[in-house]
Each structure stands twice: as structure tokens, then as C-alpha cells.
Amino acid sequence: MTIQIITDGNSDLSTEIIHQLGISIVPLHIHFGSETYDSSMNTDLFYQKMRDSEELPKTSSPSPGDFYNIYKSLDPSKDILVLCVTSQLSSTYNHALMAKDMYEEEGYTNKIEVIDSRTASAGLGFLAVKAALLSKAGHSFHELQEKLKECVKQTRTYFSLDTLENVVKGGRMSRLKGTVASMLNIKILMQASDEGAIEVVEKVRGTQRVLKRMIDKVGDAWQYADRSLIALAHSNCEERAKQFMSNLMEKYPFENVLYLNMGPVIGTYAGEGGILIAFQDASKDYE
Questions:
Q1: Total domain count for the chain?
Q2: In which element (H, E) is residue 31 found?
Q3: In this structure, are 215 and 264 located in the same domain?
């Protein structure tokens, strides 16, 4: 029995991948003043509107009802696995759990497992693709749950900020500090912590240096990395992302690359020019 995979719009998966792997998406919502879009909005339009706006757009999670309606739309004879953006950034995970309770109270007997991915963007997309491939390979629901929980624990997510404009606009840094950092050409390397919080790894002068440090992070984990797949998302900097991945693959040749356009949710945080990577690192099992 094929298991049904659901994730949210923060996964940044393309329409082609969603259809190819049969993944269901519950969108998040993006608000530019009185205008509301969902997370599937055209990325060119999103970055243009964000560039033109003095204030950052606001994002909101899918409601429990949004998840409930997706659950009800699927085949009730098949179990469901739900992967949500880190609960450290969004209430999406909790709303998916609430919808699960609503669904079960209606008397449905298929199983639903909701997993906090502890990551976002390409990290969440990476896990959703892994789940869909494992489902198609014929794994049981229990096996799939266990494998995905292990993947969540082992997934490493790193991303670089090329501009601090959105950090300043969002009130996470004073305008004075942001101006000084820009004058000094400071770039920030960040990661998703083991709990799924976004934390600063280091501050580096220059775009090429911060991207090199991201490649170094892959190198640190390469001995125990799952080399079958790496995911990359970029925030409106496709050529830079392709060159970065070419440089990475020269040193650390993964078998497959999942290229994604960073959508509105993490794109609002990162601003333009950001690059995010995610891959699986089993080194913790050897500590």
C-alpha cells in the first residue's frame, strides 16, 4: 500500500516534483498589506513585490481546517505521513496535529503521523522527497515513520544571507548595525539547530568566502554523508546558485541535486541572494 505524503508550502517543491512524486501540499499564506497570496505564488512576482515594499510581507500558517480538508480529500484506505516546517518558526506543525485529532474524531481509521521536520525550505523539501521515494519503494508505514525520524535527526541545513536588508526591516538588527555590516561586506552563515531553530554559525566578509564556508561544512560531514541527494534553494540568484553547486560538486560529488526556488516564507527572512543547502549526515551515530 502506497503511503500518502503531505508537506506544507514551506518545502518550496516545484509543481513538476509534486506531480511526479504524488506529494500533497498545504500552502502557507503571504500578506502584502491588504493583498493575500499563498506560498505557491510566482517567485519572480514575490521578489519584485518585496523589493518594492517598504515593509516586509507577513506570513501565516495553514489553519487546522486547511489540513483537515487535505486529509479528507485523500484515499481513506491509505495511511498519511505529514512533514511540517520546523515548529520553532511556525504553528504549522501544531495545526496539523489539531487537524489529525479532528479527522480521527470523524471516525476515519487510516493512520496519520505528523512529523516536525526541524528545518525549512529545501530542508523540508529534501525530507518530503525522501519520504515519497521510500513510500514508492514499498516500505511499511512503521518503517517509513522510523526512517523519516532518523532523517530528520540527521538532516543538516545551512544557508547564507547575502544582504541584511530584511534582517533590519524585520527588526532583528538595528539599522545602524546593518549599515555598518553592509559597509564591511559582512555575510552571515546560518544553520538549523538540532531543535529546528535558526542560529548564526559565523559572520564572514564577502560572498565568496561565506559560500566557501558552506562547502567546508559539507566537507566536515562528508565521511558519513548520504551521498545520494543534496538539496539547494536560492532566493532569486539562480546563476550564483548554479556556480556554487558546481564548486561544491567538484569536491563532494553527490549523485543527485534537488534544485529549488526559495519561496515566500524563508525568502522573506533571507532576502535576495540567499543560498540554502540540505543533506543527510549520519555522523551523530558515530559520536
A1: 2
A2: strand 29-32
A3: yes
Last residue of a domain, one of 133, 154, 175: 154
Only one residue has cell 512524486, namely 21
Say if residue 55 is in the same domain as residue 74.
yes
* 96: three-class secondary structure by DSSP: helix
Using a cut of 0.90, tell me whether the model's pTM lies above it.
Answer: yes
195 DSSP 8-state letter: T
SS3 60: strand
Q: What is the CATH number of the domain that holds 265?
A: 3.30.1180.10
Measure the CA–CA gap between 67 and 95, rounded to whole angstroms.
7
Strand blocks (E) in 88-130? 112-116
Edge-first strand listing for the sheet containing 80-84: 23-26, 4-8, 80-84, 112-116
- Name the pairing type of β-strands 186-192 and 198-205: antiparallel
Q: Which three cell numbers stand for residue 217?
A: 561544512
Q: Are strands 35-38 and 58-60 parallel, antiparallel or unpaired?
A: unpaired
Residue listed under C-alpha cell 538595528: 174
Structural contact between residues 71 and 99, judged by C-beta atoms closer than 8 angstroms: yes
User: In this structure, are 149 and 176 located in the same domain?
Assistant: no
Query: 122-136 and 141-154 helices cross at what angle (nearest 10)?
Result: 150
Q: Looking at the predicted structure, is the pLDDT value of residue 286 above 80? A: no
Contact 121, 185 (CB under 8 A): no
Give CA–CA dist 118/27, Å, rounded. Answer: 18
Q: Which of 128, 154, 180 is at the close of a domain? A: 154
For residues 126 and 229, is the Cβ–Cβ distance under 8 A?
A: yes
Among the listed residues 156, 166, 210, the one whose alpha carbon sits nearest the alpha carbon of residue 185: 210
pLDDT tens, 34-45?
A: 999 999 999 999
Q: What is the maximum alpha-carbon separation in the chain?
A: 61
